[in-house]
Write a structure and sequence with these properties.
Among the domains are: about 200 residues, Immunoglobulin-like; about 140 residues, Orthogonal Bundle (Neutral Protease, domain 2). By secondary structure, the protein is of the alpha+beta class. It has an 8-stranded mixed β-sheet. A 5-stranded mixed β-sheet has the order 15-16-17-19-18, covered by helices on one side. Strands 8-9-14-11 form a 4-stranded antiparallel β-sheet, with no helix packed on it.
């Protein structure tokens, strides 16, 4: 039976999942696959599903495939199965043990989800891998594809002899079965959820090591890293194994629970949609963290955080798993918090809380201020809504709230509660209530009111500390708390107040622990009037930190003298929020940042300041000032490259310089650098910078741009070069070529895979090409609803992100987008959310430009 086109979306409703899990238990899968290799578009398989049914009633298996060859239920063949193409109805079950056997043929996926196939453009070798969260395991094998029907898995795979296969468990046997094929049989796994199943295959190069556990019940853990043959020379295995071992040491001690899944492999996979995925014992990582160009310290820190985030999931997510996607936030928030805790506690990246503030929390603050904000914890109706919730609130805000919880109840109580949680719920499914109960047992306070205010409500508070003189020898600090009108709740915050004094050109800082739950809280100081105050020292709170007039004036003149990088980072965050809230002109911010960054030597602060300067120029400054300010920042970046004393600083400022080149003359200068007609002492543009310059030249219509692209492809014939060349081709400023590309975006094949199509789409919109792009604005709005109705979520998301004409910061665009939104039905959740967020961001950018323009006129 072949799958037919179905109007039904491939989605699982929470109610259906609950009904199914109430009757199905003790599930076991025996999976046999034949992967022919040679770039074949299809593979075949047979899956045996054994399970207990409490009542023998009809149920269903999730399965998205090409063709079902045979199906047997309890030994009886089903000749005309009821199959929608996504849902396979199973009848004639018995109360007790049941067995369903299904043989099938399926096509590989090319979207980064399901069972993805990739052909390396350098050597034409084939690689495949799975990616299933939240709801894609049934694209490889028929299954009860929901987190609370845990199962064991036995896997056997026939594949080309030259392939290496990695699964969730250790390889038990490998034998040759044909001239060019081998059979791999893996050990039966422990019980875990379907979305954590993994199979990765291809001619991977393997790097091996071991970790000897220090836990009393632990053992020796085999460790592996795997990379494509063409990427393997760039794998710096020593640091990768070092961070992995440090992670195991930290987490086994923290949870007081030895690693439960035997071996631990990590595989770098191509065209991956995410940073990484916590498959049991077989973690998949994006290839972006294999550095083909020299990396900075910040990049290495980010990679270490990704490694530790996924490792934390082995306990929190894999060993103990949420019952339903309502508690996805707890999986991701906890892993995010724990990864930074491990970074600072057991690796060389002891300053990682800076990165937490500038990346994780900044993402959360942006997301939480959008009109689409939602509680950290809440009802999730179906798997499509789950897809929407992989956002800054689920990751960043949740992790920040956990950090606030630790400040509230104490680290030791938190750690003890987590040890109880692991011991009590190992290999089972839980809810938020189970987690809170384990923490409640370790602290005298009732955490349910805390959870209600922090986890079940949206948005965040603003907390401002203000200096008020009372007398010569006494000063009062008034701490005030406010909330937006749309979400007026005031919360309890456990915080530290920073009190700064400037003496002899040096800043000293005192701190005071305090708590605020009402509108105001007063703190008396015995010392003289401070030079500045900051309400969230050490970044324990999730809040917008306001700056009073005294502190703001001090920072304008002396910010570089604050000698604690994390505090400087927080102050920069407050200044940036003032720009976004139209309390500080974007042009004033650029002037302040351009001055202060000259004295900055902290890499994270340099990088974040550059990003904020870029954001200000591209979105928040008046159109009439954009070219001038971009050129000034291009010149500033070039100056900083010349004056930098470290390679990392030169890399950061080099990337900035190439990014700020939007003037014709500046673009020409970057081309001169990559052609070695010009030079900057001790600076060599890396390959990413070279592609940036070349694609920029294409977009600006340089006469020799085609030759520039050809030259770079000869230097970089990799998949990275392939994507860059596609971006360059679509960047050509020609209406007919743009129209042809648009048609190809929406064709069945696209550019061959989602990632190649997304690379091409990324070259479509350029601010400098606004006149020729005008007709495509209406084309986007007239077609986008149909795209979302007929496409998978990842494609629809990529399409919107690349082709919404956000380069136009104009009221007519906002009006047109708002008009479309008003006609989109509630059922189209993803499109409505993306329109709401695009409109919200566009409206903010318009307000920021108007505010900056008004300040120019004063």
């Amino acid at each position: 039976m072949r799958s037919q086109e179905s109007a039904a979306r491939d989605v699982l409703d929470k109610n259906d999942a609950n009904r199914r899990s109430n009757s199905i238990s003790d599930t076991d899968y025996q999976i046999q696959l034949n992967l022919p290799g040679g770039g074949s578009p299809t593979y075949s398989g047979e899956t045996i599903v054994q399970f207990e049914s409490s009542d023998g009633s009809e149920t269903f298996l999730d399965f998205t495939g090409t063709e079902i060859l045979t199906i047997h239920v309890n030994g009886t063949e089903v000749t005309n199965p009821s199959w929608t193409g996504h849902r396979l109805h199973i009848e004639n079950l018995t109360r007790g043990s049941n067995k369903v056997v299904i043989s099938y043929v399926n096509e590989y996926d090319h979207t980064g989800d399901g069972f993805h196939q990739f052909i390396d453009p350098e050597d034409q070798k084939e690689y495949v891998y799975t990616n299933f969260e939240p709801y894609s395991a049934h694209r490889l094998f028929p299954s009860f594809d929901q987190p609370d029907i845990k199962a064991s898995y036995s896997l056997q795979v026939d594949c080309p002899k030259e392939w290496v296969l990695i699964g969730n468990s250790e390889l038990a046997e490998r034998i040759d079965v044909q001239d060019n094929m081998s059979r791999h049989r893996f050990s039966k796994t422990k019980r875990f959820s379907t979305y954590l199943f993994a199979l990765i295959g291809g001619p991977y190069q393997q790097f091996t090591s071991t970790y000897t556990s220090k836990h009393p019940q632990g053992g020796t853990i085999p460790l592996g890293f795997f990379a494509r043959e063409s990427l393997a020379p760039f794998v710096d295995q020593d640091e990768l194994f070092e961070v992995t071992s440090q992670g195991f040491e930290f987490f086994e001690e923290f949870f007081d629970f030895p690693y439960p899944f035997g071996k631990y492999d990590q595989i770098f996979v191509p065209e991956f949609n995410h940073g990484a995925m916590e498959n049991v014992g077989a973690i998949t990582h994006t290839e972006r963290i294999v550095f083909r160009d020299p990396p900075t310290y910040n990049q290495r820190l980010t990679r270490a955080e990704i490694i530790l985030h996924e490792m934390a999931h082995m306990w929190f997510g894999d060993l103990v798993t949420m019952k339903w996607w309502d508690d996805l936030w707890l999986n991701e928030s906890f892993a995010s918090y724990m990864s930074f805790l491990a970074l600072t506690g057991n690796t060389r990246f002891t300053d990682a809380w800076q990165s937490f503030n500038s990346r994780m929390k900044a993402w959360a603050y942006r997301q939480d201020q959008l009109v689409t904000t939602h509680p950290v914890a809440g009802e999730v109706a179906d798997t499509d809504q789950t897809f929407l919730n992989f956002d800054g609130i689920t990751y960043g805000k949740g992790a920040s709230v956990i950090k606030q919880l630790v400040k509230t109840i104490g680290y030791d109580s938190f750690k003890s509660g987590m040890q109880t949680y692991m011991e009590t719920h190992a290999f089972s499914n839980t809810t938020l209530g189970d987690w809170l109960n384990c923490l409640d047992a370790e602290t005298p306070r009732d955490l349910k009111p805390w959870a209600a205010s922090w986890l079940e409500t949206s948005q965040h508070n603003t907390v401002t500390a203000s200096i008020a003189d009372n007398a010569e020898s006494s000063t009062s600090i008034l701490v005030s708390q406010s909330a937006p009108d749309s979400h007026p709740l005031l919360r309890e915050h456990a915080l530290e107040l920073a009190i700064g004094y400037l003496h002899d050109d040096e800043v000293t800082i005192d701190t005071i622990d305090y708590s605020i739950s009402s509108h105001e809280h007063q703190i008396s100081l015995d010392k003289t009037t401070p030079s500045f105050v900051f309400p969230n020292y050490d970044d324990h709170g999730f809040l917008k930190a306001g700056l009073d007039s005294t502190t703001l004036d001090f920072m304008r003149h002396h910010l570089e003298k604050v000698n604690e990088p994390l505090l400087r980072m927080q102050i920069w965050q407050s200044l940036w929020e003032m720009v976004r809230d139209q309390q500080l002109s974007s042009i004033d911010y650029i002037n302040i940042a351009s001055s202060k960054v000259l004295a900055e030597d902290d890499l994270e602060l340099i990088e974040v300041t550059i990003e904020q300067l870029s954001g200000a120029v591209s979105r928040y400054v008046p159109e009439s000032k954009k070219m001038e300010l971009a050129h000034n920042l291009f010149s500033l970046s070039k100056q900083q490259i010349e004056q930098s004393t470290t390679a990392d600083e030169r890399i950061l400022w080099g990337r900035a310089m190439f990014g700020f080149a939007i003037n014709w003359s500046d673009v020409a200068e970057t081309i001169g650098l990559i052609q070695e007609k010009d030079a900057i002492t001790e600076f060599v543009p890396d390959q990413d910078m070279r592609w940036t310059a070349v694609i920029n030249a294409v977009a600006h219509g340089f006469e020799d741009s085609a030759q520039l692209v050809e030259t770079e492809l000869e230097r970089d014939p990799t998949d990275r070069g392939q994507r860059a060349a596609l971006r360059a081709d679509v960047s050509i400023p020609d209406v007919s070529r743009k129209q042809a590309a648009w048609g190809k975006f929406l064709s069945t094949e696209g550019y061959g895979s989602l990632h190649l199509t997304a690379a091409a789409m990324s070259g479509f919109h350029w601010w400098v090409q606004a006149p020729i792009l005008e007709p495509f604005t209406e084309q986007f709005f007239s077609e986008v609803e149909g795209v979302f109705e007929s496409s998978e979520n990842h494609f629809a998301q990529s399409y919107f992100g690349a082709l919404f004409p956000g380069y136009r910061v104009e009221q007519p665009l906002l009006d047109r987008s708002q008009a479309l939104l008003e006609n989109i039905p509630e059922s189209n959740q993803l499109l409505r959310r993306m329109l709401l967020e695009a409109n919200d961001n566009l409206a903010r950018a318009i307000r920021c430009r108007v505010y900056a323009e008004s300040n120019l006129l004063e």
